[in-house]
Amino acid sequence: MSVALGVAEDDALGTSVRLVVTRPGRLAGAKAAVDSLLQAVDLACSRFRDDSELSRLNAAPERDVRLSPLLTSALAAALRAARITAGAVDPTVGRALKVIGYDADFATIAPDGGPIPLAARRVPGWRRIRFDQRCRIVRLPRGVEIDLGATAKALAADLAAAHALVAAGGGGVLVGLGGDVVAVGEPPDGGWQVQIEEDSRAPITGGAEAISIISGAIATSSTTVRGWSRGGVALHHIIDPSTGLPARGPWRTAAVMAATCVDANIASTAAIVLGCEARPWLEAAALPARLVDTAGSVTRIAGWPPESGP
Q1: Nearest to 226, CA basis, from 100, 114, 52, 115
Q2: How far apart are CA 176 and CA 204, in angstroms?
Q3: 121-178 pLDDT, tens per residue?
Q4: Residues with Cβ < 8 Å from 270, sequence gap 6 or more?
């Protein structure tokens, strides 16, 4: 017997938000909890708000800065991402993103424009950040600007799902934050049906590939969605830290399953940057993944379910 679900959709953090609960009568409270959490993440972690905590940190090089617990958690996640990917996912890409034109909320970025100077230059590197997580103190060297885009949204999805579950009084909760999807609590009969798309704003249809999950997370990273052009050169938001330029590997999209959105997003972003090394890296980590190459061919590895449709 199918059970009615409560569904709410919105926008936050520059992306789409979808909340689904198995206790529809508690949807309003769960939505309020998610909204409050996402507002707090935006104020702490946004690179596009002058009043955000992250912007103030980036504007204060060579100084010890005490962080809020939320930004501390976000920075810790970003530095862990750098450590476990050997620097393939690196938070010191902030200045590189500005150089290629991603210097404001993506909705305001012109899709086309004149040429800009581009030169391969390794980003400063995460090891240059001095971070005492226990004391919540960080010091950035001059010239280092942090961007938390690869992990903060995923952390927000994990936290939003946890907050929504408490506000809903239990049951099951699914949160979709752009390409980051996390399920917690008791799933509906048959599990949560998750549509796999390159564009998280694509309408839910019966013909798209979908998988069923009981709990955990799926993150999708793609070079095809947040893209723009300057002087005829196609650019996108996933930076290869070794060059400071958009990653130019064989994969245009990577979707990865993991226990948390943070871990799934770390892996999906790393897969785009690692290119040909992504497959053995994901297999060694036992992370199920679906990789789409630039020609549209799909590779499923490490136990990712076979294609399913209507």
Answers
A1: 100
A2: 13
A3: 999 999 999 999 999 999 999 999 999 988 999 999 999 999 999 999 999 999 999 9
A4: 81, 85, 88, 89, 278, 281
pLDDT tens-digit map of 228-268: 999 989 999 999 999 999 999 999 999 999 999 999 999 99
pTM as predicted: 0.93
Residue written as token pair 């490490």? 302
DSSP assignment of 93-150, as one string?
GHHHHHHTT--S-GGGS-SEE------------GGG-EEETTTTEEEPPTT-----TT
Nearest to 99 by CA among 244, 229, 225: 244
Top CATH class of 1-310 equals alpha beta
Question: Where does residue 4 rank: exposed (0-12), middle (13-18), buried (19+ CB within 10 A)?
Answer: exposed
The residues spanned by each domain of the chain are: 1-310
Tokens, residue 100:
């290629």
Cα(280)–Cα(301) distance, integer angstroms: 9
Sheet containing 137-139: order of strands = 65-66, 137-139, 130-132
Alpha carbons 72 and 239: distance in angstroms, whole number: 23
254: left (phi over 0), alpha (psi -120 to 50) or beta: beta
CB distance 105 to 14 below 8 Å:
yes
Classify residue 23 as left (phi > 0), alpha (psi -120 to 50) or beta: beta
